[in-house]
Amino acid sequence: MKVGKSELEEVSKKIKPYIHRTPVLTSGLINEIAEADLFFKCENFQKMGAFKMRGATNAILNLTEEQKNKGVVTHSSGNFAQALSLAAKSLGVPAYIVMPDSAPAVKKAAVRSYGGIITECPATIKDREETAAMIQKNTGATFIHPSNDMDVILGQGTAAMELLEDKPELNFIFTPVGGGGLIAGTALAAKHFGHNCTCIGAEPEEADDAWRSLKSGKIETNQTVNTIADGLKTQLGDKNFPFIKEHVQEIIRVSEAEIKEALRIIWERMKIIVEPSSAVALAAVIKEKERFKHKKIGIIISGGNVDLENLPF
Fold first, then answer.
1. What is the predicted pLDDT for the residue at 307?
2. What CATH class is the domain 53-143?
3. C-alpha angle with apex 187: 181 to 193, nearest 5 degrees?
4. In the prediction, which pLDDT does 230 show?
5. Cα torsion for 173, 176, 182, 183, to the nearest 10°?
6. Residue 107 pLDDT > 90, yes or no?
7. Which residue in 73, 159, 178, 302 has a CA-CA distance of 20 to 30 Å to 185?
8. Global pTM value
C-alpha cells in the first residue's frame, strides 16, 4: 500500500479534536551527555499516557455507524487496552478488552476507569486471540489490532509528523520498536515531512526480533523476552513490516543496563515520568553517540504508564 503526505495530513486533522498535541522538550544536560541536540516528543503527556491514543482514535473514527454501535475488541496487556477503551468512550462506542490474567492490577483498573469491558484469559497469544475471536462472534464487535492495522499505523505516525512541524531541521528520529506500529508510522512521517530525515529504531537485546527481521527480510519471533521494557515484547506484523523494511534505516540494540541508565537520566534530568520502553530510544543514541555527534535528533517518548510499586531503580 502506498501512503502519501495527504493521507497522514487527513488522519492528523481527523483525530485532532480527540488527542493532545504533546510538547517537545529539551535538556541541556542530556545534550551534553549525548553530544547532540535532542528533541523529545513527549507522548507520556498524551491522553491515557501514551502515543497509542492516536492510532486507537483513528481506527474507531474509520468504522461505519453500524460497526461503532456493535463496538470494538482488542487483546492487550497494557497501553493499547487503555487507549482503545478511552478512545471508544470519547466516541460513544463499547470497547471489549481481552487482558492476560497476569496483567498488573493497576493496568486493569485503568482500563475499567476508561470504560473498557475486560475479559481475562491465560497469557499466551493463542488464548488472547481465541478469546478475542469469541467476543467478536458473540457481540459483532470489530477487532482492532494494537499495531498491525493500517489505521493504527497512520494514527501513530502523527506524533512524528507534529514533531517535524515543530522541528523541521531534524536529521534523525529515534523510536522504540515493539509491535511495529509506531516505527512504521514514524518512518512514513519522516519520509513525507522531514528534510533528509532518517528513521532509526531502538530495541532491547533481550527482545530483538525486529533487528533480526530487518537483517533477514522476514518477520522473526522471540523465544524469550526478559526485558524491563515491557511494552516492547510484541512482534512485528505483515502490515507494518513492509514499511519498516522500506523506510527504516536500521535498528540499534541496547542492553538492560543501558535502558536502566537512560531511564534514570530522563527521570533525573528532565523531571518527567516515562516508562522503560520509552528510554530505549535515548539509550540507543547514547550507545552510538560517536556516530550521531552534533546531529539534531528527535526522540519519541512513547509513554509514561509505569507501575510505581515496581520501579527498576
1. 82
2. alpha beta
3. 125
4. 87
5. 60
6. no
7. 73
8. 0.96
